[in-house]
Amino acid sequence: MADVPFGLPGEALDAAAQRPPPAFSKQVRAPLVAAEAKALPGGSRRRKLWELSSKFHCPLIGVCFAVDELRALVSRVMKVSRETTDFVLHTTTVGECESRTQLSSLLHKQLEKRFQLQVCKLSCLKGTQELHARWREFCATGTDIPGALWASWTHPSCDSTLEEQIFRDIHMIQHQVGSGTRADLSRLQVLRTENVALRKQLLEARAETETQRAEKCRERQMFGEQIARLRADLGGKDGLVAVLTGQLDTLRQSLPDLKDRQMLARRARDADARSTALRAKAVDLEDEVERLRRLACHAEATIEHLLAVGDSDADEQCAVANRTQPTLSGKRILCVGGRSGSIDAYRKVVEQRGGNFLHHDGGLEESLHRIDAALAAADLVICQAGCISHNAYWRVKEQCKRTGKQCVFLKSPGIASFGRVVGAVCAQEGETTDDGRPASPE
For strand 332-336 and strand 356-360, is the pairing parallel, antiparallel, or unpaired? Predict the structure, then answer.
């Protein structure tokens, strides 16, 4: 390796004015093929790294290799100190690529291995025009520039004109990348400033969060203590409940008939309540009965008075009636129901008309079974509908309907209503006697 770095294309360095860099130790570089001369490309063979023009090595090395990667590759074939700058490393590597050396061969293999896919894609192109068009596509998209650069410069169809065009394009791309890098640095500075502000806000938020977390921890600790106290109280109550339960079981065992006593006590309380209600109801009913009894006594006294006062008049009227009005001619009149105090009056009205009086209270005190015999013996049935039970009412109605007997239903149990019905029967009987045929009742 030379004692001084290789100069850039078009640059002449004074070896006497330059001191050897401390990064490299003096060593003799023996070319692998000393007599090998650079040959122009021809045929279908792709060119090697050292066969390219020397001015193409600088952009090729700078674009295709990062500084750290290049330092590692150079360290494999020569000694490189840590104090060696990136510029000295780059210019030395570019100088090594002018001929076939261990370093240039290593770089060539690395490029072939890395950009094998791009080389295969461009190997199918025929002619400089197709290669140029494909290179322009790579430049327009701005993607995969390193692989396109290596595959284009080493392609067999790449002539000197296309080489210069690629050199100009990659030169301008490097300038644009540098401008972009500077813009990125400016944006990076802005982002750093924003990062400082955001970090400050983050620290403040963390401090606030830490304060809230400490407060929550204190609250959680306080709640935990409360829960512990409540659990202790609950445990004490559970123990008390267990003790009381045991005492209750003991008492139940000591009193085997406790449940029966409790049941009897509940029944006694219920019976007392019902008895109280019944006593109150009985008092009300007694008051009602007493009121009705007074009314009945008053009604009976009134009837007896009326009967006593009107006996003489009634006897005279009956005699006249017997001479002028038709009689029942011994018919049996059955009265079902009616007021108990009016039965004698009903009987007198029927007997004065020359009939026989039969009576049944409608099931209030007498049995309903006796009503069938009374219905069978009667010629006319007068039913006091308001003073009998429902069963007696329907039994009388069905029996009369089945036997075809005449039945008159009265809503009012008064003596006048009963007398009008008996008078109507007598009139019907008289019409039957005079005409020789029965008259239809009204």
Answer: parallel
Within 10 A of 22 (CB to CB), how many other CB atoms are there? Answer: 11
Does residue 208 lie within any of the structural domains? no
The residue out of 189, 210, 242 marking a domain boundary is 189
Domain assignment of residue 104, given as a range: 49-189
Quote the tokens at residue 105.
């061969």
| Residue 219 counted as domain residue | no
Sign of CA dihedral 190, 194, 195, 197: positive
Residue with tokens 């850039």: 8
For the entire predicted model, the pTM comes to 0.34
Spatial separation of the C-alpha atoms in residues 88 and 105, rounded to whole Å: 20
Other residues' Cβ atoms within 10 Å of the Cβ of residue 254: 8
Mean pLDDT for all residues in the chain? 76
Using one digit for the tens of pLDDT, what is the confidence trace for 121-147?
888 888 888 888 888 888 887 777 888
CA dihedral of 58, 63, 66, 72, whole degrees rounded to 10: -50
In whole angstroms, what is the distance from residue 423 CA to residue 442 CA? 12
CB 12 within 8 A of CB 89: no
Highest averaged pLDDT of the listed ranges 120-124, 340-344, 380-384, 432-436:
380-384
- Which of the four pLDDT bands, split at 50, 70 and 90, describes residue 309? low
Query: In the structure, what pLDDT confidence band is assigned to residue 205 with cuts at 50, 70 and 90?
Result: very high
Asked if 61 contacts 6 with a C-beta cutoff of 8 angstroms, the reply is no
How far is 330 from 318, CA to CA, in rounded Å? 16
Q: What angle do CA 138, 140, 145 make, to 5 degrees?
A: 35
* SS3 state of residue 358: strand
Q: Which amino acid is at 148?
A: A
Per the structure, how many domains does the chain have?
Answer: 2
Is the model's pLDDT at 15 over the cut of 60? no
Question: Is 65 part of a structural domain of the chain?
Answer: yes
Across 226-235, 300-309, 371-380, 381-390, the highest mean pLDDT is recorded for 226-235
